[in-house]
């Protein structure tokens, strides 16, 4: 039995399920504090603040578009890191002049609150709404990496957007846990269900050497989406791990986004 789940089950045995929830979540959400000083390899983004429906003030980063009429890309990072590490990683998405809004979550990077599936759903809604005020007439695209893919897919089922992209995302949080630990998971992120409910073009990207989220998870998402007649494309990154080089990946992503509104966007696997 893995030490993580052995510890969780030990707490459960002593305290009961409700007391175990914070312990379980402490192994799912791994926020990092912001560094004492931030350094940017290129142009620094603007720090922004949004207010969630439950009253939390969360900070993120924003790369403004170079000109009017460009896309707005809202980026959701994984279960580790924070808005700073996410902004440095995702910055190549802004290289063609699009607006790029880096969302951060409650409990991450000094933001107030504690992360949960429900909480991250509210955080995503707040950032998307704020993004629309920054670029009122821009088409909105969501990009989610790893756990952030679950956040983006969930938001895509309820928001008026132009398209959604995920990288290294799982079918569900339940699928990633051992069978004996699944009953005590307070959060589920049922991405397998979410992909069947999306009405906009969906791009799934996964590395074959991903040792965090198995490549088969991305394949399963693609199959579920195509079976539900969702307009989905699945791109295989041969030999890539969970954090592929974004400077190389970004042009492909942006090119696919440009094709999403066209009639030639049909289901395929690459």
Overview of this protein structure:
- The model has no long low-confidence stretch (mean pLDDT 91).
- It is built from eight helices and eleven strands.
- The protein is globular.
- It starts with a helix and ends with a strand.
- Helix 1 runs antiparallel to helix 2 and helix 4 packs across helix 5 (147-156).
- Helices cover 34% and strands 19% of the residues.
- The strands form two sheets. It has a nine-stranded mixed beta sheet, with helices on both faces. A two-stranded parallel sheet has the order 1-5.
- It has helices at residues 3-15, 17-28, 83-90, 117-134, 147-156, 191-194, 215-227, 246-259, and strands at residues 30-31, 46-51, 57-63, 72-76, 80-81, 99-103, 140-145, 163-167, 202-207, 232-237, 268-269.
- By secondary structure, the protein is an alpha/beta fold.
Major sheet: size, sense and barrel closure? 9 strands, mixed
Average pLDDT rating: 91
- Helix and strand content put the structural class at alpha/beta
What share of the residues lie within helices? Answer: 25-40%
The residue ranges in which pLDDT falls below 50 over 5 or more consecutive positions are none
Q: How is the largest sheet built, in terms of strand order? A: 2-3-6-4-7-8-9-10-11
Distance N to C terminus: 37 Å
Number of strands: 11
Strand content: 15-25%
The whole-angstrom Rg is 18 Å
Listing every helix as H and every strand as E from the N terminus to the C terminus, the arrangement reads HHEEEEEHEHEHEHEHEHE
Number of helical regions: 8
Tell me, briefly, the overall form.
Answer: globular
